Amino acid sequence: MLALYISLSLIIGYLMGSISVSVILSKCLFKGDVREHGSGNAGATNMARVYGAKGGILVLLGDFLKAIIACTVVLLIAKDEYTEVCIMTTGVACILGHAFPVFFNFKGGKGVTVGAAIALIIDWKILVFIVIVFFVTFAFTHIVSISSILGATGLILSTLVFYVLNVCGLGAGYFANFTIYRLILGVVASVISIWLHRANIVRLIKGEEKVFTFKKKDVQPSVAVTEEK
What is the extent of the structural domain holding 55? Predict the structure, then answer.
């Protein structure tokens, strides 16, 4: 029975993750493909860079919700004793689907927004922590990639610390949500997101990573990828 629920979690998580909101919206609303512009990435940041704040916010919400919906569906169908392992499996599958979407030639985003949704699924305290890390970093650097990488690192560290506190029985149950399965989910999701930023890391080391700016004018479908490829 456990194998069945794990299989369902993998399928639901991966297929939901494979719904590339940025590609769908860029084609439907802006008559182009966001992957052909800017950094070539199918995520909220590149959507905002290429098509403006409206596009970026819509993708941010869509990517966040698809992970929440995937885990909610699994929670509704899984038996209580399998809940934690199914949440872990669904979350990992969702971020993999987002990065390598089967519906869009396996060319997706870098998992930042899905990672934020996973942080909320683990525990709201984790989401608050990594959002603070992200925005404080961005306020000083104006570089989304380093903010995302440090946010992902914060997800690993905070989940690990809270898990240890739970195991040690500290916090009077305040850290009770931090099971080994949620620790694994946080670590794996973060590692995947950081790995997907490997090209950004190289540019950061070289001092070549660009600061974030919104696109102020329409992008024609014929424009080629020219930045951060």
Answer: 2-206
Confidence of residue 222 (pLDDT cuts 50, 70, 90): very low
At 98, list the tokens: 């987002």
Domain membership flag for residue 227: no
Residue 27 Cα to chain centre, angstroms? 21
| Rounded Cα distance, 134 and 75, in Å | 29
Cα separations (Å) of 164 from 30, 91, 170, 218? Answer: 47, 21, 9, 50
For the chain, the domain total comes to 1
Regarding pTM above 0.85, the answer is yes
In angstroms, the Cα distances linking 108 to 65, 95, 112 are: 16, 10, 12
Helix (H) or strand (E) holding 141: helix 124-141
Nearest to 113 by CA among 125, 100, 129, 130: 130
Assigned domain for 159 exists: yes
Residue 135 lies in a domain: yes
> Could you please report the per-residue DSSP string of 2-66?
HHHHHHHHHHHHHHHHT--HHHHHHHHHSSS-GGGSTT---SHHHHHHHH-HHHHHHHHHHHHHH
Rounded CA gap, 219 and 33, in Å?
10
Residues 120 and 186: their CA atoms lie apart, in Å, by 10
Mean residue pLDDT across the chain: 89
72 vs 37, more confident: 72
Q: What is the pLDDT of residue 60?
A: 94
Q: Is residue 228 one of the residues assigned to a domain?
A: no
Q: Report pLDDT for 215.
A: 60
